[in-house]
Design a protein that fits this description.
Distance between the termini: 71 Å
Structural class: alpha+beta
Largest sheet: 8 strands, antiparallel
Radius of gyration: 27 Å
Number of strands: 39
Helix content: 25-40%
Low-confidence stretches: none
Number of helices: 17
Length: 663
């Protein structure tokens, strides 16, 4: 077995590989850029080597620097993680030439499957069904529009070397095909160093289901079930689960066997994933094969008990698989929520900054009814950089069935404390309680269909309003008792809860172990038990039989409560104060309708207009790059550009002015 492994990656996946390596008694080496000198993966490794400046193109993507780090530390093998160099055949070749083991598939498999155009041709030859599309390279934007028109809209424009949602666009007409080609080509060049583009038919409302395969160098290959990855935004997975709530055993077996056949056709060895789209009739079509460890691999590990990183290391060491296909058993259900540094209230735009608070829910292990696992690469006080992918953590839960896994995830998300940056925790929590998601009736269009105008939070129902009002009132009475404010020793203490524009009258009575709360409007009563200490942001409460885990922050006159995607300010007043508060004037937000503001911290890579230009609604005005994604900013209405105080190459903060308008 190897004695020392270097991980040519950063963040969460580097930390993940280090955990398994250390459990196997293998020494670990981290590499890091200027931006990552204090990163968690650097702290976890036995050794760390600096490899360059913050941009990945000057550090993590430079093969020579990785090889030099191996020589410097004596690392015998390299695990590439995902992204960066993980699917670069040249990297595997260079390592082989230096007699350094690559913990991944053979070079020929990377070349065959890493190129989406070649992989589709090979899949067809291996008898795997594929989506109609143009398998050749595309010359320019006009050529792209012509091909797309011949295939029939809608089409998917993809980077041949792409992954992780980068370099991908859906086009519904010629204009979108041209613009999508330009943007995909540009993103592909900057993210992968390969700007080749291809086009295929976009299957409307498909499910995205993938098969995990595992092969060794002795001719053995198995599949470890499937993962449902249909909850996506901008073609990037947000929530994954295993198994799929849609597949039957016959379809699972057919997809698994085709995946194994494809892997064997290219002499595959290591862990890999074969991705499919599946229509409403369970017809499935090959999309691509990822010749690396997938981001969402933990859900497969949770339902199979197989450590995929360990298996990759053992295969790279020349060992034979200890598992046969008949040994693979799917046990229970697992769900993964990807926690991103993206602000859902700003159309999921990237958010960078310092994590002023980072407290994941407590992890649990096997032998209990539910399992909580958090794979992360950050820590409280650390920074989220503009140079890399915005992932903060992967929160996973396991339960005996899907309902148990969803419930466990809902509670885990509510208990996850992240402050200092915008993040998508509220959105993930909202999905967990969404009736369509809970039913399992999901497609890749779920987010687009259920949140067509973006995510603006969750609208509370009447039961939730009354429950949160009651919890806030119990907190208020607890605070007053703590500071010695005179309260009624017996009988009711009257309050008015102002929540979501409603005034709810409450009579709160403190009992020995709980609070008895009567809602004066309808005469209903509830019992509230709370575990609440001022200054500690998490409140655990039970209203009658319903449990809540709430993140709370004091505000003037009450509390901000965040739970299950809800984010509400609750003011708790005495009846007289409530009467006076209703007379206060509401402060209106400033008018920014004649300004184009930078929606996220990022770099101005293009200005499409000049001062004095007349613009139309929907016209592209500027392109801002943040976290490896190019974001096109468009005009909300017609007008004239009066001032542009920025220039291409400027780094802007969130809400910094890019343009001013007249008319």
């Amino acid at each position: 077995m190897f004695t020392k492994i270097l991980v040519a990656n950063r963040g969460e996946i580097a930390c993940r590989v280090f955990k398994t390596a250390k459990a196997m008694g293998i020494k670990t080496v981290a590499v890091y850029s200027d931006a990552d000198k204090n990163a968690l993966h650097v702290q976890m490794a036995d050794e760390a080597v600096h490899i360059g400046a913050a941009p990945a193109s000057q550090s993590y993507l430079i093969i020579d620097k990785i090889i030099e780090a191996c020589k410097q530390t004596g690392a015998e093998a390299v695990h590439p993680g995902y992204g960066f160099l993980s699917e670069r055949a040249e990297f595997a070749e260079r390592l082989k030439a230096e007699n350094i083991a690559f913990i991944g598939p053979p070079v020929n498999a990377i070349e065959a499957m890493g190129d989406k155009i070649t992989s589709k041709k090979l899949a067809q030859e291996a008898g795997v069904s594929t989506v109609p599309g143009h398998m050749g390279l595309i010359d320019d934007a006009d050529h792209a529009a012509k091909i797309a028109s011949q295939i029939g809209y809608p089409v998917m424009i993809k980077a041949s070397a792409g992954g992780g949602g980068k370099g991908m666009r859906i086009a519904w007409n010629d204009a979108e095909a041209r613009e999508g080609f330009d943007r995909s080509k540009s993103e592909a060049a900057s993210s992968f160093g390969d700007d080749r583009i291809f086009i295929e038919k976009f299957v409307v409302q498909p499910r995205h289901i993938e098969i995990q395969v595992l092969a060794d160098t002795h001719g053995n290959c198995i599949y470890l079930g499937e993962r449902e990855c249909s909850i996506q935004r901008r073609n990037q997975k947000v929530i994954e689960e295993a198994p799929s709530p849609f597949l039957d055993e016959a379809t699972r077996k057919a997809m698994g066997e085709q995946s194994v056949a494809l892997a064997q056709a290219v002499g595959y060895a290591s862990a890999g994933t074969v991705e499919f789209i599946v229509d409403k009739d369970r017809n499935f079509y090959f999309l691509e094969m990822n010749t690396r460890l997938q981001v969402e691999h933990p859900v497969t590990e949770l339902i199979t008990g197989v450590d995929l990183v360990e298996q990759m290391i053992r295969v790279a060491n020349g060992e034979e698989l200890a598992l046969a296909q008949e040994d693979v058993k799917l046990n229970g259900w697992a769900i993964e929520s990807r926690l991103y540094a993206e602000d859902p209230y700003r159309n999921f735009l990237p958010s960078i900054g310092r994590l002023t608070r980072y407290r994941p829910p407590l992890s649990s292990s096997a032998g209990v009814d539910t399992i909580v696992r958090n794979d992360t690469g950050v820590y409280e006080g650390g920074e989220i950089s503009m140079f890399y992918d915005p992932m903060i953590a992967k929160l996973c839960t396991w339960g005996k069935n899907r309902e148990a896994a969803v419930t466990a995830m809902s509670h885990a998300l509510d208990a996850f404390e992240v402050e200092g940056i915008g993040h998508n925790l509220p959105f993930c929590a909202a999905v967990m309680k969404h009736e369509r998601f809970k039913s399992g009736n999901i497609t890749t269009a779920f987010i687009e269909e259920e949140y067509p105008d973006g995510f603006e939070g969750v609208t509370p129902n009447d039961t939730e309003l009354k429950a949160l009002a009651s919890i806030a009132a119990a907190m208020k009475l607890s605070d007053e008792r703590r500071i010695g404010t005179p309260i009624k020793a017996s009988g009711d203490n009257d309050y008015v809860a102002v929540i979501d524009g409603q005034h709810i009258k409450l009579a709160v009575q403190a009992i020995d172990t709980h609070f008895e709360i009567a809602l004066s409007e309808d005469g209903t009563k509830c019992q509230v038990h709370i575990d609440y200490t001022p200054g500690i942001p998490l409140v655990r409460a039970k209203v009658d039989a319903t449990d809540y885990i709430i993140k709370t922050t004091p505000i003037t006159g009450g509390y901000r409560l965040r739970v299950q995607g809800l984010d509400l300010n609750v003011k708790i007043y005495t009846p007289r104060i409530a009467e006076l508060a209703s007379l206060m004037l509401e402060k209106l937000p400033p008018d920014t309708s004649k300004l184009l503001l930078c929606p996220m911290p990022g770099l101005i890579v293009k200005l499409n207009v000049q001062e004095g230009d007349k613009i139309e609604e929907g016209q592209a005005l500027a392109i801002v790059e943040a976290m490896k994604m190019e974001n096109v900013l468009r005009a909300e209405k017609a007008g004239t550009v009066s001032k542009i105080p920025v220039a291409v190459g400027d780094s802007l903060a969130v809400d910094e002015v890019i343009m001013e308008f007249e008319g």
